[in-house]
Amino acid sequence: MSQEIILGVVLAVAVFFIISGYNVVPLLVLFMLGSVLYIGLQRKGLVNSSFFAEVPAGGQINFTDVGGQATAINELMEAMNFINEKDKIGHLGIRPLKGILLTGPPGTGKTLLAKAAATYTDSLFFATSGSEFVEMYAGVGAQRVRNLFRQARKKAKQQSKRRAIIFIDEIEVLGAKRGSHANHMEYDQTLNQLLVEMDGLEPENDCQILVIAATNRVDMIDAALLRPGRFDRIVQVQLPDKEGRLQILQLHTKNKPLGDDVALEAIAKDTFGFSGAHLESLANEAAIMAFREGQATISQRHFKEAIDKVMLGEKLERKPGEQELQRVAIHETGHALISELERPGSVAHVTIVPRGQAMGYMRQSPEQDSYMQTKTQLESQIRIALAGAVAEELILQEKSTGAANDIKEAIKLAKRLIACGLSELGIVDGEQSGDLVSGAVRSIIAQQEQKVKQVLSNYRLLLQQVASLLRQEENLSGEELRAYLQHFRTIA
């Protein structure tokens, strides 16, 4: 029970006794004496000191259990070798590392890497979160930092371990830039104590402490914490590439019965931008779908449907009216046709089955992982985003609110094009040229919209045919769409 809840209960009881006519002065005196004793014990570390979790030996994680992070693993293993080969690095005059910061998007395996590092070095592993150190009472956070390092040494000695790893998740909460909080004194005291403790991490004969922290907001962390001598290395833990996604899928399907038609390579290709956590959820959802159907194995179609569920959510029970379904079918067909014409083979799946907030969805299959984009590629994406609304206007003579997210995406892409100096404006300062940039965004979108209108006008008959088929079937694969497109070109 937290201190705030205890205080509230005591006050409620006191009010009850006062209303009932009892003398509550003795009770209040006892409560005050108890509070003073509690705070004294707390400051000495006798209470509220075990707020971090010691990982049991049975829950060990190895680097082989972490997929899709070859670069991060190699960098982390090198740092761990400095610990394992202490005598060799001493001969070369190498100072042992005091801290390692793992930074990257959520779900990429930062906690798993820290646990694997503890296993690799046979270290005692303690895990906590930055939010555990922040309290409304002055001095508590700093005391908890001191207790954390003190208990790490004590526990390691009790278990005859020469090394201990302290893992702090969400370090940006504990190590935020000083002065960034309204009640910044308590936050700053806690951070200052962490800085002092890390400064004092000298190699000892009985126990060596290494701090590993994780964050996805390295920009929020105080510079004093990031300097060498505290966090000596910053390891990037990024979203996995295609090969990395395949490794992760293989790890998470080892204990699952897969059908003969399952191609994990194709699934890895279709999941660009997925983190390790997304891929674990994908494998689990595919297994759940097979269980619902009473199947003994998981097939490829289960994985494909699981991709949509992870991206958009569960299918909804609501059933739009006939006119709405027709509009959604035309809208999604417009996206799919322009996508396929812009980059043949790009469409993986088209559906008008509602999921999450989406009434329909066109999923693309990237040809290869891409981390840079040209002007041509950005303009192509803008045309694909606008195609749904243009298709509605072409067939039904007016647009709808269903294109709201598409418009936002088109504006985002246009702004990125301008920010990178790829527009007619050249290089501009977006903050100082608001009106100029807004005008350029409108111009770019208008130009690309006109191009989409011309293309869809030439494919109007095919647009109507595919939309009608999609309305009947509710789902179309990329192969089926390409077959219709090829047939249309043959008879045209």
Describe the structure in your own words.
The structure is a single chain. This protein has 492 residues and is of the alpha/beta class. 55% of the residues lie in helices and 9% in strands. It has 19 helices and nine strands. It has helices spanning 3-19, 25-43, 70-84, 86-91, 110-120, 140-158, 171-174, 184-199, 223-226, 242-252, 264-270, 276-292, 300-312, 322-342, 375-396, 404-419, 434-458, 460-473, 478-491; strands at 53-54, 99-103, 124-129, 163-169, 208-215, 233-236, 347-351, 361-364, 475-477. The strands form two sheets. It has a six-stranded mixed beta sheet with strand order 1-3-4-5-2-6, sandwiched between helices. Strands 8-7-9 form a three-stranded antiparallel beta sheet. The protein is globular, with a radius of gyration of 29 Å. 36% of the residues are buried. The model is unreliable at 43-52 (pLDDT under 50).
